[in-house]
Structure formats: C-alpha cells, structure tokens
Amino acid sequence: MATRRYFVLLLCLAGCVTNQAVEDKVRLYNDDGVAMFSQGRFLDARESFELALQLSPHDADLLFNLAECHDRLGNYAMAEQYYVLCLQKSANNADARYALGILYYKTGRQADAQKLIDQWLVEQPKNPEPYALDGWRLRQERDHTRALGRLQQANGLDPQNVHALTELAILYETMCMPDRALVLYERALARNPNQPEVVVRLAQLRARNVGPPQPD
After folding, report:
1. Terminal-residue alpha carbon distance, the chain
2. Pair 201, 173: CB distance under 8 Å
3. What is the pLDDT of residues 150-201, one digit of tens each?
4. Helices 144-157 and 128-140: crossing angle, nearest 10°?
5. What pTM was estimated for this model as a whole?
6. pLDDT value at position 8?
7. Which of 173, 172, 201 has the alpha carbon at shortest distance from 186?
8. Which secondary-structure segment (H or E) carries 196?
9. pLDDT in tens, 18-39
10. 124 by DSSP, 3-state: which?
11. CA distances from 5 to 9, 149, 206 (A)
C-alpha cells in the first residue's frame, strides 16, 4: 500500500508539472500574439493565439484575442463566432460585447447593434461601456452632438475607460480639436498600449506638431 501511495503521489506531481508546462506555453503564445497584434501584425498574432487556444480551448481571453485578429483581417464571420464564444464563456466580458456591437453595425446589422446597446444600457446603467458604444454608433451617423453627450456620460462614469477616451479623441479630431484628441489618445494608450490604430492616430497628430491644449 505504501508503494501504491508513492506511485499515486508521483503521478500527481507529474500532472502538476505537465499542467504548469501547458500554462507556460499558453502564456508564451499569448504574449507573443499580443506583441504582434500591437505592431499591426494581425495574421502572425492570429497564428499565436490559435496555438494557445489549442492548449486552452475554453480560455475567454484567448477567444477574444483571436476574434480581434479575425476582425482586423476582415474575416467578420469568424470574428463574430469567436466573440460569441467568448461571451458564452464570460458573459461580462465588456470588450467582447463592445466589439460585437461594432461588428454588427459595420456588417449592416444596425438593428442588432442597437438591440445590443439598448439591452446593455438596461442591464448595466452604471457601466460606461454601452454609453461609449452608443457614442461610437452616433459618430458613424455623423450625429456629433449626441455622440459627444453619450461619450461624456461614459467618461463621467469612469474617466479612465479606454473606449470612452479613444472615442472622445476621435470625435474631437472630427470636430477639428486635435489638441484635445492628442491628450486623450495619450491617456488611452497609457491605460492600454495594445491599440495599433490609436498609436497611428497619435503619431499622425505628433507629425503635424499638434501639442496639448494651451491654457486660456
């Protein structure tokens, strides 16, 4: 019996080592994918996330990362599939819900996007994310006044919300206020540097020698 207990213990230890090795590989593939995504190398990033997902198929964050790659590559059907899978694993994943709303809208399903936004606002009226998403929608429709109001609501609920900061910055650029946009892009990237589109926008403003707002 003692020999059997020792054998079982060895198996358990081997299992722990194996699990740790798998987790390390998943982390390595994911970190590699995130780095390439931040560089705009979406195809390479997708391959890394797929390798990670093979080892950890129920990981909601990996599902979201893979969806983002497909989204950037224009593979909208696959992106939607992975966003939905992510939300099935993690119903409160705000990034996936936000991205899915945008995907609905840009693929011509404005009614589905509006339904998602309205339901989200009812379920979580103190969450800045649905307000930011509605601001994004209104900006697509060139309703800048209402978009600004929605985004200010989001910013009021959470001044550090990345989606609200980014959308406000884009809106300020559209409204010919690049100095305000520059400050908000910087704040958004400080919160989440893995936003290649925002990196490009900020670099373009700096190339035009845009600086922060001057005091009155």
Report:
1. 83
2. yes
3. 999 999 999 999 999 999 999 999 999 999 999 999 999 999 988 888 999 9
4. 160
5. 0.85
6. 45
7. 201
8. helix 196-207
9. 677 878 888 998 999 999 998 8
10. coil
11. 6, 67, 66
